[in-house]
Amino acid sequence: MDALALARWQFAATTVYHFLFVPITIGTGFLVAGLQTAWYRTGNEKYLKATKFFGKLFLINFAMGVVTGIVQEFQFGMNWSNYSRFVGDIFGAPLAMEGLLAFFLESTFLGMWIFGWDRLPKKLHLASIWLAATGTVLSAYFILAANAWMQHPVGYTMNAEKGRAELTSIIEVLTQKTALATFTHTITLAAFTAGAFMAGVSGWLLAKKRHEEVLKPTLKLGLVTVLVSFLLVGISGDWSARVMTEQQPMKMAAAEALYNTESGAPFSLLTIGTLDGSKSIFQIGVPKFLSFMSTGDFNGTVEGINDLQAKYEEQYGPGNYKPNIPMAYWGFRLMIGFGAIAFLFALMTLFRLRKGSVPTGKWFVPAMVWMPLLPLLANSFGWIFTETARQPWTVFGLAKTADGVSPQVGAGALWITLIGYVALYGVLAAIEVKLMLRAIKLGPDDQIHYNEPTEIGGSSDKPLAMSY
Amino acid sequence: MTLQTVWFLLIAVLWIGYFILEGFDFGVGMLLKQVSSNEADRRAVLTTLGPLWDGNEVWLLVAGGATFAAFPEWYATLFSGFYLPLFLILVGLIVRGVALEYRSKYGKAQWRQRWDIAIVISSAIPALLWGVAFSNIVKGVPIEEVNGHLEYTGGFFNLLNPYALLGGVVTLTVFLTHGAIFLSLKTAGEIRNKARALVTRYGLVAAVAAVAYLIWTIALLPEKKTIVLILSALVAIFWLAALGMNLKGREGWAFIFSSLAIVSFVSDLFNALYPRVMPSSVSKAFDLTITNASSTDYTLKTMTVVALIMTPIVLIYQGWTYWVFRKRVSADQISHPERGVLDGDKLPL
Question: Beta strand pairing status for B276-278 and B288-289?
């Protein structure tokens, strides 16, 4: 493999891995904050137990999100120095804002929350988890605004002499609809992921008749979160699809393996194309649905891959402007499919729960085991789809991926870091899963002691509520 | 003052903040085994970092992000140029973060011992390599124009020169000392006494290394700068004051002085650089400077507004956490030090 391919593999591997932890962090942060608020309002100890239990799982996950996030921040400069030079004037700003507005908030107040049970008054302690959760959302917003700029550059001008894009309106970059649609989609999928996680964990323990008092409410909370957020994921996904059709029609065409421009185009349920990816040989679909999804009109025109290729050649010069079509096609479907299965499991469980009983059927335990995993798969395929189907561009229409790679970093150095990250991340994944499973198996604590401290800072002779 | 100078200054401030804050984190991590004699000690030592380390590390992320935003050419050339050392630093930071979070979750002795070793090593690697990296920046490295960009052309081994390695020894020993001072301030009992004794030991080694390093730095400079001489003298004065205060048992003052020594030290290096950000050892024509590496005025202005609003707010709330967690931590406060939260009482170990 050459340096370019290695740098791409590294980016894909580290980013997909990082994003396994991110949505759980964002969503669970809010769910835990909600549980703690319920305890604060009602004084009912079951909510405190639930807060502590899911807080523990949240923190095991959070640690991984933090450390793998560091790599993301430096990877642009390390492996993609020419990309960094090209976009730095624009792309750096949201990254720096993410640090200043989001990372500080998130890490500082999460530290307060973890170690503050016996150091902060109840109210301030509760505020700290809400602030930390807010930090995670802000972080998502800024990094997605940066990513949206790669999908659809706005608020810039080209400086030919310096060979780079330069910022002319930060407001446009931060408020363009691509950013808002992606942000909404990501935040709702984070809620979906976290809801499925909470429901799966609760359901699995409930199937063993454990901690019913604590976990029945969290099962419900998780399931309702899944149902509501699934709708919102769908709505924001539909919005994203329209924005995408308008801004990156090739991506939509690839997602549908639609080779030739059609009016009233069908949504493909299964398309098999030729190996060189130039046309389809077999197709089953829902009539006119693709046109509706991408334009809002059943008879709307959707541009096809071959026509777009011809158009781009005219516009940008000779070259291959087609992404990897099977990957886009299947990535898109697996994203929706895995999400839909999790939704279905949630629906089935909630249906039974309506009558007050936890399901007992044979399907229930496997469904609860799969439920937290399905959104992770859906999220990963979603990112794989949206990033690979932008190719050959890093910044759509402006800069190609092949031109962004660091010229001074050879394949040898890239092999070292790629193998290094994969090995390290592999070991850490095994450790994380082991800890997570153990924490889940233990379940919520039966006894929880809470004493509100009399002053901020607590006491230096009492045993610590939390220690490393 | 031009906007470029403002951002050069702000980035210097971010690195100063990072080295003061994560400097003691690294120090405490490296000292973990030396200052503790049992499990309760070790947990007390790590708990002093518990609520703070993650927020401290953000200073690095913001320094990186600010460099990307304000001086993209610097960010690109530096990070792709110092590739493998940076990779090692990242591996260190990853392992360290996970080790701190996970090590006490289980009680098993072997589990904890392994993580303890990981904490010591993963704290030492960045502590050493940051010094190596910064020294190379100050000294100048082979940078040439390649396809219209100023690129680092020196390779890996070029970075391991005597001056840079001495710089690594300086940051390593300074952070060890600074961490020991922090521990003496934040712990009670045996740990505190051990830490105080280590301050003098490592502090003197750091003093010798730093004096040699600063003289070498002054000798390397292409032009004479009075401010560099003054700051170098201040480093020495503050450092000796820190060691003296430690001997007198004034731990708070010792920490303030060691922090001031770090402030002077990092300012010294940035003053030696200014207006360059990455001088070339090949030719002055290839120096990366605050002018040829910078973003546009519009971007710098935008970021200045954000920084002016956010930095004071961040300083206030981060400062407040230090106040919330101001109490000393003692080993007696750790109940059941051998048990981790994931041991439970029902499941076998």
Answer: antiparallel
Alpha-carbon distance B79 to nearest alpha carbon in chain A (angstroms) = 5
Evaluate whether A29 touches A132 at the Cβ level (below 8 Å): yes
Neighbour count for residue A422 (Cβ, 10 Å) = 15
Tokens representing A262 are 């059609």
CB half-sphere exposure, A399, CA atoms < 13 A: 25
Cα distance between residue A213 and residue A238, in whole Å: 39
Nearest to A240 by CA among A365, A370, A151, A373: A151
Residue B59 tokens read as 């200073």
Closest residue to A81, CB basis, from B66, B76, B330: B76
Gap between the Cα atoms of B147 and B289, Å rounded: 18
Tokens 């729960």 -> residue: A353
Enumerate helices (H) and strands (E) in chain A, giving the number of each: 16, 8
A202 touches chain B (CB under 8 A): no
Half-sphere exposure of B137 (CA within 13 A, CB side): 27
Alpha carbon distances (Å) from A400 to A167, A204, A244, A320: 19, 47, 18, 11
A217 contacts A202 by C-beta, under 8 angstroms: no
Cβ <8 Å between B77 and A81: yes
Residue A292 has pLDDT above 90, yes or no: no
Yes or no, beta carbons of B50 and A111 under 8 Å apart: yes
> What confidence score (pLDDT) does residue B345 get?
64
| pTM for the predicted model, two decimal places | 0.94
Which residues of A are less than 8 Å from B95 in CB distance? 424
**B250 and B206 Cβ atoms separated by less than 8 Å:** no
A317: exposed, middle or buried (Cβ count in 10 Å: 0-12, 13-18, 19+) = exposed
- Whether residues B55 and A56 touch (CB distance < 8 A) is answered with no
Contact B87 A416 (CB under 8 A): yes
Question: Residue B327, class by beta-carbon neighbours within 10 Å (0-12 exposed, 13-18 middle, 19+ buried)?
Answer: middle
Q: Which one-letter amino acid corresponds to residue A140? A: A
Q: Are strands A262-263 and A301-302 parallel, antiparallel or unpaired?
A: antiparallel
Complex ipTM more than 0.90, yes or no: yes
**Closest chain B CA to residue A89:** B295
A81, A125, A417: best to mutate for the B interface, most B CBs within 10 A: A81
Q: What's the Rg (C-alpha) of chain A? A: 24
Which of A43-47, A350-354, B73-77 shows the lowest mean pLDDT across its residues? A350-354
Q: Indicate the SS3 state at residue A156.
A: strand
The interaxial angle of helices B162-186 and B3-31, nearest 10 deg, is 70
> What is the reported pLDDT for B347?
45
pLDDT at A300: 83
